[in-house]
Amino acid sequence: MTSPRMARFHPLEVATVHLETPDAIVVGFRIPPALQEEYAFTHGQYVTLKLTVNGEELRRSYSICSSPLDPHELRIAVKQVKGGRASTELVSKLKQGMTLDVMTPMGNFTTALDAGKARHFVAFAAGSGITPILSILKTVLRSEPKSRFTLFYGNTDSDRIIFRKKLDELKAQHGDRLAVHHILSQGKDEDALFNGRITKDKAKQLLSRFVADTLDKEFFICGPEQMMVNVSEALEGMGADKKTIHVELFSSPVTNEAKKAPVEVGEGAFTGTAQVKVIMDGRETLLTMDASGDSVLDVALDAGVDVPFACKGAVCCTCKARVVEGKVEMAMNYALTDEEVADGYVLTCQTHPRSATLTIDYDQH
Ligand SMILES: Cc1cc2nc3c(=O)[nH]c(=O)nc-3n(C[C@H](O)[C@H](O)[C@H](O)COP(=O)(O)OP(=O)(O)OC[C@H]3O[C@@H](n4cnc5c(N)ncnc54)[C@H](O)[C@@H]3O)c2cc1C
Question: Which domain CATH number covers 323?
């Protein structure tokens, strides 16, 4: 999704914090009336938090679990990662009344909704991957009264199921328009299909039993990288159109199956020194950078330009900008759609010049 709104941090008060499972919290932010427009969001988007842990400034993204149909609520869920710096700090220390630096919402893990359509949405979530899916699910069920939603939700055991109660409530509210199938890696269900990890074979069996075919459907996958690879392969094997498969990664891929080849925006090889004009907040800064050196984002940050960023690993799109002139290459991209790349958008944390001059506009976000 392309929005003209600038990416900015604002200090927001934590209105609510509750322990959802032994290692996950749900956090609600108070949005002052003057900032309501800046924090308007689309189902499936995320916010980035800036926090200091042991003297180190960290930026971490968290998907919004509330629905844009409830605009006064902006809630996220944070699951503690073993040894994780930001998630441990948040889960163990965050209290109501504290203030956090929160960037305005962004992200592409979404699809346009249409009240006239009768569609079947199918999602695979695992662990904290339920967060954007919950926002999508709630919004779909209320915005498309003729559509239905099937969720396959993987967790280690039933104690760790984030939003279990909420999902039960939604099932009661929406009847057979919502189906939720829990798959527990340490489960002991009589039907073995609901126990164990979501492998490619299990994904195929689940889809065959509960979804039948891949025609006229929208698929959303959010969870660990291996599950994303397994489910995507199962869907593609069953003939799903790639355009209907939406994927959100929470961390940079480590397996080769998930790795993507570099993406060229423009044509031609270039290996010299480039003059790069960076536009941010209407201001132009001229940078000299080596085509085989650091990314545009890192060079801009080193030069003191306050450009937005979060993961620096090609999975979020916080550092997105548009190439207005010149050619570039992106080392990796897991966040931008093919249409955005065709429109000249890049993840600047992955962008290297491939022409002697280049203009990158962060104001076209
Ligand atoms: C677009 C986007 C949306 C996200 N939404 C959510 C969300 O809704 N809820 C949520 O809890 N998290 C979400 N994340 C992940 C979150 O941003 C952090 O990466 C996560 O909280 C870990 O940060 P940390 O500082 O605690 O761990 P770090 O200190 O960065 O990492 C410590 C160790 O944990 C590993 N690690 C890092 N991240 C993960 C991970 N996600 N899963 C498993 N191992 C990991 C690292 O490899 C490292 O070894 C999202 C990420 C992105 C990019």
Answer: 3.10.20.30
Q: pLDDT for 146-166, tens place per residue?
A: 999 999 999 999 999 999 999
Strand order in the sheet with 351-353: 263-265, 328-330, 351-353
Looking at 68-77, 108-117, 279-288, 350-359, which range is the least confident one? Answer: 68-77
Pair (52, 72) in one structural domain = yes
Terminal alpha carbon distance of the chain? 9
Q: Is the CB of 55 under 6 A from ligand 1?
A: no
Residue 268 is predicted with a pLDDT of: 58
| Domain stops at, among 229, 258, 287 | 258
Query: How confident is the prediction for the chain on average, in pLDDT?
Result: 93
CATH number of the domain within which 196 lies: 3.40.50.80
Mean pLDDT (whole number) for 118-141: 97
316 lines ligand 1 (CB under 6 A): yes
Three-state DSSP at 31 gives coil
Please tell me the residue having the least CA distance from ligand 1 atom 53. 250
Ligand 1 atom showing the smallest separation from residue 87 Cα: 26
State the pLDDT at residue 227: 93
Pair 225, 334 in one domain:
no
Structural domain boundaries enclosing 169? 120-258
The predicted structure's pLDDT at residue 212: 84
Ligand 1 contacts CB of residue 65 (under 6 A): no
Q: For atom 1 of ligand 1, which residue has the closest CA?
A: 316
The domain tally of the chain equals 3
Question: Of the candidates 39, 108, 97, which has an alpha carbon nearest to the alpha carbon of residue 68?
Answer: 39
Closest by CA to 150, choosing from 221, 199, 201, is 221
Q: State whether residue 349 is helix, strand or coil.
A: helix
Same domain, 136 and 228: yes
Ligand 1 centroid distance, CA of 333 (Å)? 18
CB of 128 within 6 A of ligand 1: the answer is: yes
**3 part of a folded domain:** no
Do 202 and 145 belong to one domain?
yes
- The CA 337 to ligand 1 mean position distance, Å, reads 22
How far, in Å, is the centroid of ligand 1 from the Cα of 255?
A: 17
Q: Over the stretch 81-120, which tens digit does the pLDDT of each residue have?
A: 999 999 999 999 999 999 999 999 999 999 999 999 999 9
